[in-house]
Amino acid sequence: KEGGRDGFRFFGVEMDESIARRRELDADLRIALETGEGLYVAYQPKLSSRGNRIVGLEALVRWTHPRHGPLAPDAFIPVAEESGLIDQLGEWVLREACRVARKWPGLSVAVNVSPVQFRGTDMALRIHKIVYEAGVSPRQIELEVTEGILVEDDEEVRGAIQHLRAAGFRIALDDFGTGYSSLSYLKKFTVDRIKIDKSFVKRLGQEPEAIAIVQAVIALGHAMALSVTAEGVETSEQERLLQTAGCNELQGFLFAPALLEAELAEWLERPFQ
Ligand code: C2E
Ligand code: CA
Ligand code: CA
Ligand code: CA
């Protein structure tokens, strides 16, 4: 009978399955990166809080697996980080993002950089080279990093961030407030922007103290001369509260989800509402 299995054995079976699945995903992702099949990048608009003008895009990778169908990045990014494929995947996303940046010179394009990519010593140089070869100004490219970079070697990471900022790239701290060391990385690295995590935005309008937290984060950012973006804006009430608190940029399903390039072109041409 099914229920007769003991917990330990069951755990063992699960582990084997997950290892096999990771191996499979890794092998398939390797092929996808070689052929370009099934991989693409979607772009989510970022709006200025005042006037709701589009100011930029965030590049978000998508993968339609040949047998399993569309997979969320959370399902394959960790696999790529573990196997080291993330370097190649990250560079591919950056090249795609540069192509789109050339198409819309008035928009900044943000690209997510995994903490694992910071392990390569020449990471800043490689990013710089890709953007240079694409004929895009680093000023148009923003790199989003999470506090996971803090577990990497301090001096290396600091050097890489300094190199990138000196070259003109903007650096944004993603998922701000979710980890243990959001404040300590503000002290360690000079950055340009913080992105308030969507978990805080979600609580706006649900819990009264959420407004106080968001106001404090925005005030902190402004006191450090940083621009502040809120992600995950889904309601007009959240929009209004964030505008009142002085948040600089808004991003979320209220305005647009991540769009395919063709959808983006259409979205940009829509009449002003
Ligand atoms: P993230 O960088 O925090 O990206 C924001 C996520 O929130 C995206 O999910 C986006 O589609 C989603 N989102 C946007 N607006 C809303 C909203 O109003 N409500 C809600 N509930 N969600 C919203 P996605 O595309 O599934 O990406 C998940 C994570 O995967 C990203 O989180 C990022 O950490 C990672 N990721 C995505 N693309 C890349 C990439 O090219 N490289 C790396 N290293 N990581 C990536
Ligand atoms: Ca991000
Ligand atoms: Ca985020
Ligand atoms: Ca995230």
UniProtKB/TrEMBL annotation:
Entry superkingdom: Bacteria
Occurrences of domain EAL (ranges): 22-272
Keyword field: Membrane, Transmembrane, Transmembrane helix
Residue ranges the record marks as coiled coil: none
Protein name: Periplasmic sensor diguanylate cyclase/phosphodiesterase
Organism encoding this protein: Stakelama pacifica
Source taxonomy: Bacteria, Pseudomonadati, Pseudomonadota, Alphaproteobacteria, Sphingomonadales
Coverage span on the entire protein: 489 to 761 of 774
